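User: I'm putting together a small comparison set for a docking exercise, and I want a reference complex before I start. The sequence is below, and the ligand is magnesium ion. Could you produce the 3D structure with the ligand included, as structure tokens?
Assistant: Of course. I'll restate your input first, then give the structure tokens for the complex.
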Amino acid sequence: MDFGIDTIIGQSAALRGALDLARKVANTRLTTVLVVGETGTGKELFARGIHYLGLTHGEPFVAVNCAAIPETLLESELFGHEKGAFTDARSQKRGLFELAGAGTLFLDEIGDLPHKLQPKLLRALEDRRIRRVGGNEEIRVNCRIIAATNASLTDAVARLEFREDLYYRLNVFRIDLPPLRHREDDIVKLAMSFIDSIAQDSELPPKHLRPDAIAALRAHLWPGNVRELKNVIERAAILCEGNAIGAEHLMVQHRTSLPAGRMTPLGGEIRIPPGGKSLDEIEHEAITLTLEITGGNRSATSRILGISRPTLARKMREYGLTPARDNVA
Ligand SMILES: Nc1ncnc2c1ncn2[C@@H]1O[C@H](COP(=O)(O)OP(=O)(O)OP(=O)(O)O)[C@@H](O)[C@H]1O
Ligand SMILES: [Mg+2]
């Protein structure tokens, strides 16, 4: 499987900025990287990209999800243990820090690292040394640590759930991955690349996207980000019997609630990129965001936007915005 940084698709300024940072850090000896982004934005893809592009290439890539393993187990997973350190420790075990060698240790969902383990991780990052559970020997740490989070660590610091000193240590080199709804231009490129890889796997000619499908893809807010887009395209490729994928093949639902781990509240900001933006694009975004805020309620949306309901309906048709069927009041 190819994990190279070249497999990361996106031309938007925000994604190019993130790729640039990834390339820069990959070839330095800087040992800690923090990747921040909503679910499905490509945090693990970036972590692997940095690993395989850089000096760590050819060394192990070891991943662990800090939210998925109970505290006591996580400690011995990360740091290893000596024989007899606790009841089940029948033999000595090397931890993931040791197994990662001179490669990369990917600490996923770092915000969920139990409080008790936070000072131990800080020590490993600062002194580049660890001790196995129940051991006295100091073991050198050589790996790079890439930590990922989809939640705001500053909020966790404010709630005293995450140590401030560890936060600052992790935050030295931070890469923010933009949500897909902030990089509309990447949506179609990503969709086409997923269509191409499906075609390669099935050895059939690639299907193409009809204009109504493109409009629907661009209008959707993608709470599950690139992962959701990939799934939607895979389903569409199966549902579509001909070679033209249309809006009817795309199972995108209008979002009425926030996904877990989303960092911004409902709504969002309309940003004008350096290259500028047309009034139509701004209007499209204003309507999309207001529909999001009202959960797809067209009366409330037209009231907020100061336009009549028929005008809203017409504009929604023009922009290919499909209303939620169960919430069209
Ligand atoms: N820019 C991109 N180009 C190509 N594929 C991408 C891109 N971003 C994400 N993907 C794909 O989307 C899927 C989700 O990516 P990944 O697992 O890296 O997300 P994540 O941020 O780690 O999500 P989570 O927080 O849910 O763990 C993967 O299949 C990945 O290959
Ligand atoms: Mg992940």
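The chain has a mean pLDDT of 88. The longest strand covers residues 144-149.
User: Thanks, that's exactly what I needed.
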